Amino acid sequence: MTQKYQLLEDDTIVRAGKTLYRIQALRDVAIGVQAGTKGGYIESEANLSQEGKSFVCHEACVYDQAIVEENAILCGEATLRHHAILRGEAFVAGKAILQGHAILEGKAAISDDVVVGGYARVREGCKIGGKVHVGGRALLQGYIVLGGSLLILGDTIIDGEGSLFDDLIFMEAQHLHINKHGHVTMAT
Question: Exposed e or buried b for every residue in 131-152, given b needs 16+ CB within 10 A?
Answer without folding.
Answer: ebbbbbebbbbbbbbbbeebbb
